[in-house]
Write a structure and sequence with these properties.
The protein has one domain: 3-Layer(aba) Sandwich (Collagenase (Catalytic Domain)), CATH 3.40.390.10. By secondary structure, the protein is an alpha/beta fold. It is 34% helix and 18% strand. The strands form two sheets. A five-stranded mixed beta sheet has the order 2-1-5-9-8, with helices on both faces. A four-stranded mixed beta sheet has the order 3-4-6-7. β1 (4-8), α1 (14-28) and β2 (32-34) form a beta-alpha-beta unit.
């Protein structure tokens, strides 16, 4: 059976892993299994930017691909970027097997505010669903409440829900059927 593999980096809180496991299992109706830890070598660090290359980390998640037509989600605590943007909350291979979520900018402490573990869990769930949605071929949604809504700032992450709108849910189901992926329910 197809599964979603979680690859948390060292230092990712167990509560984050539990919430992401539960929300992905519900959203995609697939078993979620823990693997890892996520490999994040120092060579992924760009000293000029003070960040890690999400593309380099994602590349390691992709190769070799899962044998069960499944998906992989890496979870990092590091601040990540892609060359064309100053930062990203995550990155995914559109229609591919792997995605990555960074907790760095999802934490209130990043913005010099007091820690808020509950808010971190909500944000992590939303971004995990969003990035995994991309691996199933979903693109950005215009519905600001949908998990597939584009988030270029933390305020936009907070606006959306940790679930798909009806349109994206329908597209996900079609993608899974076309891909021969059958969930638990």
């Amino acid at each position: 059976m197809t599964s979603i593999q979680l690859w948390p980096a060292e230092g990712v809180e167990e509560a984050v892993i539990e919430v992401i496991t539960n929300v992905l299992s519900t959203a995609f109706r697939l078993p979620v299994v823990r693997r890892g830890p996520l490999d994040e070598p120092d060579e992924d660090f760009d000293a000029g930017r003070g960040q890690y290359s999400s593309t380099a980390i994602l590349r390691r998640l992709i190769d070799p691909p899962p044998e069960d037509n499944g998906r992989r989600l890496g979870i990092t605590t590091r601040d990540i970027f892609i060359p064309m943007l100053s930062y990203v909350f995550g990155q995914a291979q559109l229609g591919g097997c792997a995605a990555l979520v960074s907790l760095a900018r999802l934490r209130q402490e990043f913005y010099h505010l007091p820690a808020n573990p509950g808010l971190l869990l909500q944000r992590a769930a939303k971004e995990a669903i969003h990035e995994m949605g991309h691996t199933f071929g979903l693109t950005h949604c215009l519905d600001r409440g949908c998990a597939m809504s584009l988030s270029t700032g933390i305020e936009q992450v907070d606006e959306k829900k940790a679930e798909f709108c009806l349109s994206c849910q329908t597209l996900l189901q079609e993608s899974m059927v076309e891909g021969g992926i059958h969930g638990e329910r």
